[in-house]
Design goal:
This protein is mainly β and 249 residues long. The chain has 2 helices and 15 strands. The protein has helices at residues 136-139, 211-220; strands at residues 13-14, 20-22, 35-38, 51-60, 76-80, 94-95, 107-112, 127-134, 153-156, 171-175, 181-190, 202-206, 229-230, 238-241, 246-247. A hairpin with a 5-residue loop joins strand 10 and strand 11. It starts with 12 loop residues before the first strand and ends with a strand.
Length: 249
């Protein structure tokens, strides 16, 4: 996560608001096996309550295009080999209603262990950054992201704080309609000109755009777990992540 500048690949995933890292860079069948590390705050310091869980199955959106991440569909679902143990450090996230987008200026937060500047080092500890929502009509203006941004995306932040390499697949948490925190975005891409480039806010896969697909996959291929709303104790086997992270200038 940058408070200055940046470029290219990042990794991460979430069903929790805090403390989850999975190594899913270039997610595909040939790069496995995959696993997730839950409950960790400082990646360099093993903690007694760490949970390391193998990934049993993953499903990438069928329309995902590795050569054009900005086309949309940078989203995948992971099923763990067994449910995570819910603790104060590992908590389920809430998903927004289908189609809902937070209003322009809504104060949202990105979390991750990404680089803290363009070309800089990754962070050992989990960082949080305030990223206000930039509505589609503004973010898609020609001197901003233009046609690179689609309705399946949500933009957030500005040139002072942004996502960066290492943050991909992590959550954009925003207050929901009922004041509960919800995951409204999955970190997808930033500008190749730098993480904190003016008029190039961080672009996220918009979660509410894919609620119906998540529901379909969970029902037909992952055992019929949650749809929208909050994950409960029986639904702590499914994680949501991005497939790849690219930089676009």
């Amino acid at each position: 996560m940058a408070a200055g500048e940046q470029p290219e690949h990042i990794r991460g995933s979430h069903f929790a608001k805090l403390g989850l890292q999975g190594d899913f860079e270039n997610l595909n069948e040939n790069n496995g096996p995959y696993w997730v590390l839950l409950g960790r705050h400082n990646l360099t310091l093993p903690e007694p309550l760490d949970q390391v869980i193998p990934v049993e199955k993953f499903i990438i959106h069928p329309e995902y295009n590795d050569s054009n991440v900005a086309k949309c569909y940078d989203i995948a679902l992971l099923k763990l080999s067994h449910s995570a143990k819910l603790t104060p450090e590992v908590k389920p996230a809430c998903l927004p209603p289908a189609g809902y987008t937070p209003p322009h200026g809504t104060k949202c937060y990105i979390t991750g262990w990404g680089t803290t500047s363009t070309g800089g080092s990754v962070s050992d500890v989990l960082l949080e950054g305030l990223l206000p929502v930039v509505h589609y009509e503004h973010c898609s203006q020609p001197d901003w992201w233009g046609s690179t941004v689609k309705h399946c995306h949500i933009c957030a932040g500005g040139y002072k704080v942004s996502g960066c390499i290492g943050d991909s697949g992590g959550p954009l948490n925003c207050p929901g309609e009922n004041a509960e925190w919800e995951v409204h975005g999955v970190t997808s891409f930033v500008s190749a000109c730098g993480c904190n480039t003016a008029k190039k806010p961080t672009v996220f896969t918009r979660m509410s755009y894919f609620i119906d697909w998540i529901k379909e996959v969970k029902t037909e291929q992952m055992g019929g777990l949650l749809v929208a709303g909050c994950v409960d104790m029986e639904e702590s086997q499914i994680l949501i992540t991005g497939v790849d992270f690219r930089k676009w200038c």
